[in-house]
Amino acid sequence: MKKKYVYWQNDDMWLGYFEEYPDYWTQGETEEELKENLLDIYHELTSNNLSHIRKVAELEVL
Fold first, then answer.
1. Could you say which of 10, 15, 16, 27 is the most buried, measured as most Cβ atoms within 10 Å of its Cβ?
2. pLDDT tens digits for 16-57?
3. Which residue ranges form the domains of the chain, and what is each CATH number?
4. φ, ψ (nearest 5 deg) of residue 15
5. Are the CB atoms for 13 and 48 separated by under 8 Å?
6. How many helices (H) and strands (E) does the chain have?
7. Matching InterPro entries, A to Z (predicted)?
8. Cα separation, 22 vs 57, whole angstroms
């Protein structure tokens, strides 16, 4: 399974979040560390141990 994420470099840090969870950002000193942190936050967000998690969805309107 693959999930899309948004990321960028800001000075010496890499920041990012999953498109599906735009309110939950993480960071890393390297791009690889950012990816590791993204995986950690994804597992936390999908563990069903947290309440009130906001997500982005798509709805077809006519």
1. 16
2. 999 999 999 999 999 999 999 999 999 999 998 888 999 999
3. 1-62 (3.30.160)
4. -120, 150
5. no
6. 1, 3
7. TTHA1013/TTHA0281-like
8. 11
13-18 sheet: strands from edge to edge: 5-10, 13-18, 26-28
The token pair at 14 is 């890499």
For residue 54, what are its two tokens? 């906001």
Q: Do residues 33 and 14 lie in contact, with contact meaning Cβ atoms separated by under 8 Å?
A: yes
Q: Confirm if 40 and 51 have CB atoms less than 8 A apart.
A: no
Q: Judge whether 22 and 12 are in contact, CB under 8 Å.
A: no
Angle at alpha carbon of residue 53, lines to 25 and 33, rounded to 5°: 25
- Which amino acid makes up residue 19? E
Question: What's the pLDDT score for residue 23?
Answer: 96
- For 53, what's the count of Cα atoms within 13 Å in the CB-facing half-sphere? 18
